[in-house]
Amino acid sequence: MAGVVLLALGCASSAGLRPLSQTLPSGVPTAAQRASWERIDGDYETATEHVRYSLFVDPERPLLFRITQYRVNLRRPMGSRPRFEDGAETVVWNEVPERRVPLRCYAEERLDGTPSPGVPLSWRDVDPTTREFKVSMNRAMEIYARVRGEGRGGPPVR
User: Distance (Å, rounded) from C-alpha 85 to C-alpha 40?
Assistant: First the structure.
């Protein structure tokens, strides 16, 4: 019963959050190219944030998340409206999985610090030598661990 209540609270709290963008950075496979790919969507909350994500699995590489798209919204103080601060979106692209090179990372570019409703996102490259890149990769690994822990990514763990 407690699990049902927590699930309901989680769904209710994430309902007002902005959906992930349909427009990904240039160079990343287009929606038409991704049409046959598996897509794993999800949300979760911690004590301080809400995370919304989509993972894309290329059928030619079924054990690999080729594209990771996510947004982290920070929780505002109790009683605030809205409940979460709208965070910037991040996209991680495993462009050349057969080579040992840094993944591509993009962050939502915001001119005034907030998204513009109805306007496609603008993306900027995140340099692999920066702290921002490392934080983005750590978050992606956290998402992968949650998805695999729920049995929603890759072969079943025995």
Answer: 24
Torsion of CA 65, 69, 74, 75, to 10 degrees: -80
Say how many residues make up the chain.
158
- Its pTM stands at 0.82
153: nearest Cα among 37, 40, 36, 35: 40
**Sequence-separated (6 or more) residues with CB below 8 Å from residue 127:** 133
What is the spatial distance between Cα 134 and Cα 128, in angstroms, rounded to a whole number? 7
Measured from the Cβ of residue 40, the count of other Cβ atoms closer than 10 Å reads 16
Per-residue pLDDT of the chain (158 residues; tens, 9 = 90+): 444 333 334 444 466 688 999 889 999 999 999 999 999 999 999 889 999 999 999 999 988 999 999 999 998 877 777 677 888 999 999 999 889 999 999 999 876 666 656 666 789 999 999 999 999 999 999 999 999 988 887 654 44
Could you tell me if 75 and 84 are in contact, meaning their C-beta atoms sit under 8 angstroms apart? yes
Domain boundaries, the chain: 2-149
CA distance 18 to 9: 17
